[in-house]
């Protein structure tokens, strides 16, 4: 009987498992695959394709991603709930300066429609890494909005974390509208000035829509954690 996260991790050092939704659901309701990946499950039937595509983007979508060494060791004591207890634990600080956007897509295709864009950055990973921060919205400018706002995160298990950029059209009276997104593994992020090329809901490119960001990654020292 597998009763803890560590038990699942140890089981998956030698076994494959496939995770299904509860019961026999055949509808389109989704669940987050990240929790299952964090305990070493290799195959996940979730339809949350942003995370799925983001994870496998690091190997050009060939269908196989090698788990980190601490999840392949048969004697591992790694627990997603207690990442600080594993050998070699090194939390990372991720700072993302969201500078500007370029030719963001319209939500309403009617002539004269204008968007009020904001950027949300979400971290998916072990429980302590789940986080999200967002910029303010820019009124009536989807062509070249400028934010110059910095979003900060602490990543406790970088090897399992995914970073998702999402752009939304702000609406004070109802739910914001999705405009575009891009998801990639934390380990694939490169520091410095970067353009994030946005994808649509179905994962296709929407050129020339992009975000311009400046990314900083550093180890989190004991002093900075206090």
TrEMBL record:
One Pfam family from the record: C2
Keyword tags: Hydrolase, Lipid degradation, Lipid metabolism
Molecular function via GO: phosphatidylinositol-4,5-bisphosphate phospholipase C activity
Domain PI-PLC Y-box intervals: 3-72
Domain C2: 72-200
Highest taxon above the source species: Eukaryota
Enzymatic reactions: a 1,2-diacyl-sn-glycero-3-phospho-(1D-myo-inositol-4,5-bisphosphate) + H2O = 1D-myo-inositol 1,4,5-trisphosphate + a 1,2-diacyl-sn-glycerol + H(+)
Gene3D superfamilies the UniProt entry points to: C2 domain, Phosphatidylinositol (PI) phosphodiesterase
SUPFAM superfamilies: C2 domain (Calcium/lipid-binding domain, CaLB) (SSF49562), PLC-like phosphodiesterases (SSF51695)
Keyword Hydrolase: yes
GO biological process terms, semicolon-separated: intracellular signal transduction; lipid catabolic process
GO cellular component terms listed in the entry, alphabetical order: plasma membrane
InterPro entries, per the entry: C2_dom, C2_domain_sf, PI-PLC_fam, PLC-like_Pdiesterase_TIM-brl, PLipase_C_Pinositol-sp_Y
Documented EC number(s): 3.1.4.11
Enzyme class: hydrolase
PANTHER family cross-referenced by the UniProt entry: 1-PHOSPHATIDYLINOSITOL 4,5-BISPHOSPHATE PHOSPHODIESTERASE DELTA-4, PHOSPHOINOSITIDE-SPECIFIC PHOSPHOLIPASE C FAMILY PROTEIN
Protein name: Phosphoinositide phospholipase C
Source organism of this protein record: Dissostichus mawsoni
């Amino acid at each position: 009987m597998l009763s803890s996260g560590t038990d699942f991790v140890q089981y998956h050092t030698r076994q494959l498992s496939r995770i299904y939704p509860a019961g026999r659901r055949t509808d389109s309701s989704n669940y987050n695959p990240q929790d299952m990946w964090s305990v070493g499950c290799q195959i996940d039937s979730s339809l949350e394709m942003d995370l799925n595509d983001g994870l496998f983007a690091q190997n050009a979508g060939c269908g196989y991603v090698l788990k980190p060494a601490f999840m392949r060791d048969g004697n591992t004591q790694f627990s997603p709930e207690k990442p600080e207890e594993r050998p070699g634990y090194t939390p990372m600080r991720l700072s993302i300066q969201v500078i500007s956007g370029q030719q963001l897509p319209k939500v309403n295709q009617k002539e004269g429609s204008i968007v009020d864009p904001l950027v949300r950055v979400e971290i998916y990973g072990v429980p302590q890494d789940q986080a999200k921060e967002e910029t303010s919205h820019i009124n009536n400018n989807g062509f070249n909005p400028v934010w110059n706002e910095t979003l900060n995160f602490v990543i406790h298990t970088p090897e399992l974390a995914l970073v998702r950029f999402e752009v939304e059209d702000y609406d004070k009276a109802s739910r914001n509208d999705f405009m575009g997104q891009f998801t990639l593994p934390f380990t694939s992020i490169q520091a410095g000035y970067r353009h994030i090329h946005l994808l649509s809901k179905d994962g296709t490119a929407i050129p020339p829509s992009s975000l311009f960001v400046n990314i900083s990654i550093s180890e989190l020292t004991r002093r900075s954690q206090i």
